Amino acid sequence: MEFNGTFELEDTTVDEVWLALSDPVMIENALPGCQFLVPVEDEDVDFDALREEHGDRDVDPTSDPEVIANRAFEEGQTYATVIGISIGPVNPTFETVVTIDHREQPEMKASGEGSAGDSSFEMNAWMDLDETDDGVEVDWRAEAEVFGRIASMGQRVINPAANQVVKRFFSSVQSEIRDREIADSEAMDAEGDGTAETEESNDGGIVDRILGRSRSN
């Protein structure tokens, strides 16, 4: 199955959107039905242990660039999440692992798989950001193989459910950006009256770390 679409985020910039989408806590808060989203060492995940450790956690959002840099998504890192979703007459809760395969502004690619009782899926997903006159256009695409009971419902049932999740997610992203007032990269570079160069030499560059940029040699 293939899914794709475009979502417009108004009155914002590519840097601001990328910063928000770099923060696993923001994703966790914005993704409907998400119980937690945490990095794991490998794909052999003990979800019961993760539920016990993270299921009731309450992590406050932040606009502090250094905090975001320290917990930002990393290329090659695997993350575990538990997501509940309504698909037709059923409400499965998927235990899911996702790996960030590529991450460099303005593009990100991820792959993953999840299972929920008698249903499972495998997927690859892509996202690209483009500046527009009114804000940012997010182009997204996903290819998925679905198995079990969910697959038997067919694409006519699955597509509307997936599109609804995506719509709610990006609407929440828009709200999170406004609420948190995440500074754009230019403002972060200027923060501290010229200390950004020192930060880059001593700490790998907060801005570069968040934006997923490779440092030049």
Automatic annotation (TrEMBL):
Residues 184-202 have a biased composition (Acidic residues). It comes from the Archaea. This is Carbon monoxide dehydrogenase subunit G. Residues 180-217 are annotated as: Disordered.
